[in-house]
Amino acid sequence: MADSRRPVPYRPGAVSLFFVAKAGVFAAGFWAWLLVLVVGSAEVGGAHVLAATGAATTTLVGVVLGVRLALQHNAATRHAELRRLLVDISWNAFAAAGNAGGTGDVGAPGKIVPFPTVSPEAERSPTRGAGERVFDRRAPSGRADRGGNGDRH
To answer: Kindly report the CA angle at 27 between 25 and 33, in degrees rounded to 5?
Structure first.
């Protein structure tokens, strides 16, 4: 049985399914009409062309709408699972932060080690490696560069 505490994820619903079923009914009607026309007469006329065109068109529309409905359903399921995962991650991080508050034993079992953070002084360090990029928009004089390298007219 499904867990009643969790909300039901969005599922593409009745409107999309209605149009898929409607296209299927029309396609079945056109195919039946075409079959009756083919069995009933030997000559090909305008009604045959109309029935064949209607059958092919409504069949293709039904297939396209059915594929769209299936893709929406899969996307809704993936989205709901992603939301559940994000809630679980944030809840676990919140609980771990409460458990690790001030005890000092970083390597204790059941505790989560916090991510290392970089201090602002380390980000502005003048000694950088060759591959590190600096996104500092200051001109060599220390003023903020607004483009044009400080040449204002």
So the answer is: 105
Which DSSP symbol is given to 150? G
> What are the tens digits of pLDDT across the range 91-121?
887 777 766 655 555 555 555 555 556 665 6
CA distance 55 to 21: 15
Q: Is the pTM of this model over 0.70?
A: no
> At a CB cut-off of 8 Å and minimum separation 6, what does 4 contact?
none
Token digits of residue 145 = 């560069």
Q: Which of 38, 64, 68 lies closest to 51 in space, CA to CA? A: 38
For the chain, how long is the longest CA-to-CA vector? Answer: 92
Q: Is 58 exposed, middle or buried (0-12, 13-18, 19+ CB in 10 A)?
A: buried
Specify the DSSP class assigned to residue 11. Answer: -
Cβ(27)–Cβ(56) below 8 Å: no
The encoded tokens of residue 141 equal 């004089």
CB atoms within 10 A of CB 45: 9
- The partner residues of 144 in beta bridges, in order of sequence, read 138
